[in-house]
Amino acid sequence: MAFNRGKQGKQGSAARTIAKVAAVGIIAGAPLGLAVGTANAAPGMDWDALAQCEASGNWGANTGNGFYGGLQFTQGTWNANGGTGNPANASREEQIRVAENVLRTQGARAWPVCSQRVGAYVGKTAPAPKQAQPQRKAQPQQRQAAAPVQQAPAVVLAGSTSNPNGNYEIKPGDTLSKIADENKVAGGWQAIVEKNKDFLTNPDLIFPGAKILI
């Protein structure tokens, strides 16, 4: 009995040891299996939504900050994942092809911020650029014939004439007011006009050499 108990005790220890090893194997193997499964099952990306977040949907973005295209590649990442030339000059389809390679090698962490926000941009693609409307050439306006300008008839001012009975000869620079003041004519220049009313037809227009009565 004692032998049997000892045999049974050894078998029990061995069984417990095997069970522990198996359990450790299962526990240790679980993360590896999950990690492999996660890497092989990388979820797809809505590239249009990601481009909307990264570059406002502009697949030709090149702002000089070192990131290019709609998915904001660095030149090094672009070249390392099968891209050629400048990402900003590549088509949307070519950028998505390279981005698929980046997603396989780096995962969504290649876009650390926008990959977390991409759901908010699904369906919000950038508006299509407005096509420039052809400019209409301005039709030359027909010039309307200008109406002839009617000129007012010239007014001919009749000048005063010389009074043959005059006792004062008009000098250059004289005016009737000046003549009346210098000669102290009673009644002023109006009196001179009255005395020469048949000759001073225009008191404002008198001529040197003409005679008037003062």
How would you describe what is shown here?
- The chain is an all-alpha fold.
- The chain is built from seven helices and two strands; from the N terminus they run H-H-H-H-H-E-H-H-E.
- The radius of gyration is 57 Å and the shape is rod-shaped.
- The chain starts with a helix and ends with a strand.
Distance separating the two termini: 181 Å
Overall 3D shape: rod-shaped
H-E string: HHHHHEHHE
* Strand order across the largest sheet: 1-2
- Radius of gyration, in angstroms, nearest whole number: 57 Å
Percent strand: under 5%
Report on the biggest sheet: 2 strands, antiparallel
Sequence stretches where pLDDT stays below 50 over 5 or more residues: 1-42
Instruction: State the helicity in percent bands.
Output: 40-55%
What's the total number of strands? Answer: 2
Structural class: mainly alpha
What is the count of helical runs?
7
Average pLDDT rating: 75
